[in-house]
Amino acid sequence: MIDIRLIRQDPERFKRGAQAKRIACDIDELLALDDRRRAAQTELDRLKHEQNETGAQIANYRNPRSRYFQAALASGRTEADLKAEADALVERMTAIKNRVRELEEESRAVTERFEAAMLRVPQPPGDEVPIGRDETENVEIRRVGEVPKFDFAFKDHVTLMTDAGMLDIERGVKLAGSRNYVLRGDGLLLHQAVLRLALDTMRARGFVPMGVPVLVLDAMMVGTGYYPGGEEQAYRCERDGMSLVGTAEVPLTAYHGDEVLAEDELPKKYVALSPCFRREAGAAGKDTYGLYRIHAFEKVEQVIICRNDEQESIRHHAEIVANSEAVLAALELPYRVVNVCSGDLGQGQVQKFDIETWMPSRGGYGETHSASRFHEFQARRLKLRYRDRARNMLYCHTLNNTVIASPRILIPLVENHQTADGRIRVPAALRPYLDGRESVGGPEVRT
Fold first, then answer.
1. Backbone phi and psi for residue 168, each to the nearest 5 degrees, phi listed first
2. What pTM was estimated for this model as a whole?
3. Catalytic residues
């Protein structure tokens, strides 16, 4: 959520930001609602003050022992005069109560519309973000590693893993419908090895490992910016007001929601390995083959909660990208880093870097990581604050990035490291998690 004071000060900036992100948002209507909300609140405050004063006056007019009553009689006014004045004030009190009731109803309705509109305002992209329509206009920053050249007819990950008894998509679809799968034998072991390598890498880099709920209250989805707007992508339990998360970013970022931290506690660095669930609504007919776009997967996610400082956020952004690059380097995979353009950014993101890993079967790089910084967008929604050393209350900044997501990462892993005999070479960093084996897979022996 954005600070409304910033929108009042420079509405054109937020109009440009919404346009750059291609997100529908009526800033003028929002400001009109804000004006109505504030005007109603001002009148309510005035009437309630008058209500209190009028109540005190009525009590004085009706209490013969009060100093005011005695002073009025001493000045020549009669008890009948005071009764008439009290009756007139009662009528005024009734009118005030009626108007307060009307204003409270109006204020409640306007505030609801205002708050709903505020939840739709996108965070303007940072100055470093290229302006563009969609992912085709993302800007490449660097490429790392050599794309392999095969001297044999290479196989795609589905053929390679199915032939080796590592993957069974047909039965996965039988069990759970489209975009599902079953990992078998070495397929599951490789999947688990990759996740454990990523988790251990982050522990070594000072991140606290966390086991977090993946079925969370809808309020946590709102707090992290996934609702409103992303409901169609989530598996929802409407009866309970809960949702399955598409990333551990949600519970990790919301972990300190509605808390006030001390500046000395920051930054908080967390990492979690969790199941993730995505409906892939709107993706009908897109990436239907293999493990690229699926409904359920596991992911190691990193989250940083830091001070409200632009330069510190930028440093942490570089850090979380470097963490993921270290894992890809350990997996000996070629990849590239892109600066995501404005039209491909989410509502709350100030800037995002995607890491795309080379996938031979796709003939190009496929997204495997997304590293985002949000400034205080998520923290405001979550009431995630800290006191600085001067005792000022500030909202934190938040950042997150994929460390590894599997089985999507298995696509480049098995395809890039396949051998002519249908086996998959195991990178040295993964071997300790696979009993020292140098390769897995190979044609399945069926009996």
1. -135, 95
2. 0.90
3. 278, 293, 367, 370, 408
